[in-house]
Write a structure and sequence with these properties.
The protein is an alpha+beta fold and about 425 residues long. The chain folds into two domains: about 10-305, no CATH class; about 340-425, 2-Layer Sandwich (YaeB-like fold). It is about 55% helix and about 15% strand. The chain has helices at about 10-55, 60-65, 70-85, 90-95, 95-105, 110-160, 170-175, 185-210, 215-255, 265-270, 330-335, 355-365, 370-380, 420-425, and strands spanning about 160, 165, 260-265, 280-285, 305, 320, 335, 340-345, 350-355, 385-390, 395-400, 405-410, 415-420. The chain has a four-stranded antiparallel sheet with strand order 10-11-12-13. Strands 4-3-5 form a three-stranded antiparallel sheet. A hairpin with a 3-residue loop joins strand 11 (about 395-400) and strand 12. The chain is globular, with a radius of gyration of 28 Å.
C-alpha cells in the first residue's frame, strides 16, 4: 500500500498553526476576561457606594452594616431579584449562588450587608451567563476554523484534492456540549463564581466585624479576585486548546486519516511537561482528552498532526491531482461541501439533522424525495435501530414507507438514503 510522505512545508505549517492558535487563545481569553473584570469593578463600586453613604471616618462597623434597608429600597430589590430569577441559566439554577439568593429573596427586610451581597451575587451571576454564551461562540468558531484548516492541510500535503463535508451545526453542537473534562465549561465557570462569591461574603463579613477601612476591604477582595481571575483564565485557555485540537482531529476523520502524532513541547517551543507523549502515534478512534489527546492537563500547550501511514486515495473516487496545489480560498469554495440543515418533529421532540449537498444529489438519483425522507424519520414503521457496520461505525436506521434513512448518531448527519423495498414495507405493515 502506498505511503504518503508530506513535504517539509506540511511540518512547518503545523508548527505555524500551533503558534497561531496560542495567540488566538490568549486573545480570546483576554476578551472573555473583560466580562469578569467588569463584574469585579462593579463589586468594588458597590462597596465604595455603601461606604460613602454610611461609613464614618472611612470605616463601617458590623452594627452599621446590619441596619435594615428602607422599605422603598426593599421594594426595588424585590423587583430586581424577581426579574433576575427569570433569566438565570440552567447552570445558574443549580449553583450555590442561587441557593444564597433564594435565602435572601424570602426575607421581609434585608440588612445593608445582605443587600450588598445579593447585588454582588446577581452581578457575578450575569457575568457567568454572558461569559458562557460568548465562550460557546468562541469554541464553536475555533472548532470550525480548525476543522477547515486541518482538512485543507491534509489534502495539500498529499497534493490530492477531493470533496469533504463541512461540520454541520448539529455536529458542532454535539461536540461543544460533550463532557470531555470533569465539568462542562459552563458548569465550571459557575463553580468558580460560587467560590468567588463565598470569598466575597467572607471578606465583607470579616471586614465589617473588624471595622476595616474601605481601602483594606478592597485590598482583601482584590487578593481573592486575582486568584479567581487566574482560575477562569486557565479554564478558558484549556477549553480553547481542546476545541482547536478537536477541530484538527475532525479534519483527519473527514479525510480518512486513521492516526495522529502527539506533538509535545519539544516541537512547539511551548512550556509543557508532556514530553513523555511526544511523537507517539495514536489511533484517531482512540483519542481521549486527558489521556492520549491534548490537553492532558489545565493549560496544556500540546497539539497533534496527521500521520500518513496508509494511502487514503483509494477511498476517494473524485480525486484531483494538482502539481502546484490549491489556494485555501479556492479549496474552500470548490471542495468543502456545506451541509443542508433540517429539523424533524419526532416522538422525542424536535431533532436537528444535516445532509450534504452531495448526499441530496444521490437522493434524487435514487428516486427518493425530501418528503419521503422526512416521513421516514418522523413516522418510522418501527423503532429506529442502532447498527454497526463492518468497520464498527455506528448508525441509526429509520425505516419509512417509501424511504430508509441512515443517520450518524454522533453528528446527526444523514449518511445515506434509499427506497424502502416492497418486501420490507409489507413485512412492517407499511
Amino acid at each position: 500500500m502506498k505511503k504518503i510522505k508530506p513535504s517539509s512545508a506540511f511540518f512547518n505549517n503545523t508548527k505555524r498553526h500551533i503558534l497561531e492558535d496560542e495567540k488566538n487563545i490568549s486573545k480570546n481569553a483576554e476578551e472573555l476576561l473583560g466580562f469578569y473584570e467588569k463584574a469585579v469593578m462593579e463589586t468594588e463600586d458597590r462597596i465604595h457606594a455603601l461606604y460613602s453613604k454610611f461609613a464614618k471616618e472611612n470605616k463601617m462597623t458590623i452594627k452599621e452594616a446590619r441596619e435594615f434597608i428602607t422599605s422603598s429600597e426593599q421594594k426595588v430589590f424585590n423587583k430586581t431579584i424577581a426579574e433576575y430569577m427569570k433569566i438565570i441559566s440552567e447552570e445558574g439554577e443549580n449553583s450555590l449562588t442561587k441557593i444564597e439568593l433564594d435565602k435572601l429573596s424570602i426575607k421581609a427586610r434585608l440588612t445593608r450587608e445582605e443587600k450588598l451581597l445579593a447585588d454582588i451575587y446577581m452581578e457575578m451571576g450575569k457575568m457567568a451567563d454572558v461569559s458562557n454564551e460568548e465562550l460557546e461562540k468562541v469554541l464553536k468558531e475555533t472548532l470550525k476554523t480548525s476543522f477547515k484548516r486541518s482538512a485543507f492541510d491534509v489534502q495539500n500535503a498529499m497534493g490530492v484534492y477531493y470533496r469533504v463535508n463541512m461540520l454541520s451545526d448539529p455536529a458542532i453542537n454535539l461536540i461543544v456540549n460533550r463532557d470531555w473534562a470533569k465539568q462542562k465549561f459552563s458548569s465550571a465557570i459557575w463553580s468558580h463564581v460560587d467560590n468567588l462569591n463565598a470569598h466575597v461574603k467572607e471578606v465583607l463579613t470579616d471586614g465589617f466585624i473588624q471595622g476595616k477601612s474601605i481601602d483594606k476591604m478592597v485590598r482583601s477582595l482584590k487578593e481573592r479576585t486575582d486568584v479567581a481571575r487566574g482560575n477562569v483564565e486557565r479554564l478558558i485557555k484549556t477549553e480553547c486548546k481542546y476545541f482547536a485540537n478537536q477541530g484538527e482531529l475532525e479534519g483527519y476523520k473527514a479525510n480518512g486519516i486513521r492516526k495522529y502524532v502527539f506533538i509535545g513541547d519539544a516541537e512547539t517551543d511551548s512550556k509543557c511537561n508532556c514530553s513523555f507523549y511526544s511523537n507517539k502515534i495514536i489511533d484517531v478512534d482512540k483519542a481521549e482528552a486527558l489521556l492520549n489527546f491534548p490537553p492532558l492537563h489545565p493549560n496544556c500547550k500540546c497539539s497533534i498532526r496527521a500521520y500518513f501511514e496508509d494511502s487514503i486515495l483509494d477511498n476517494n473516487k473524485d480525486k484531483i491531482y494538482l502539481e502546484n496545489g490549491y489556494g485555501y480560498s479556492a479549496w474552500e469554495e470548490e471542495q468543502l461541501i456545506k451541509p443542508i440543515e433540517l429539523k424533524f418533529n419526532t416522538s422525542d421532540g424536535i431533532i436537528e439533522m444535516s445532509v450534504s449537498k452531495h448526499a441530496m444529489e444521490r437522493i434524487e438519483q435514487r428516486g427518493v424525495t425530501l418528503k419521503d425522507m422526512r416521513d421516514a424519520i418522523e413516522n418510522p414503521l418501527e423503532e429506529p435501530k442502532l447498527r454497526l457496520d463492518a468497520y464498527n461505525k455506528k448508525s441509526i436506521r429509520y425505516l419509512g414507507k417509501k424511504a430508509t434513512v441512515n443517520v450518524n448518531p454522533l453528528s446527526n448527519n444523514i449518511v445515506t438514503i434509499w427506497k424502502t423495498s416492497s418486501k420490507k414495507k409489507s413485512k412492517k405493515g407499511g
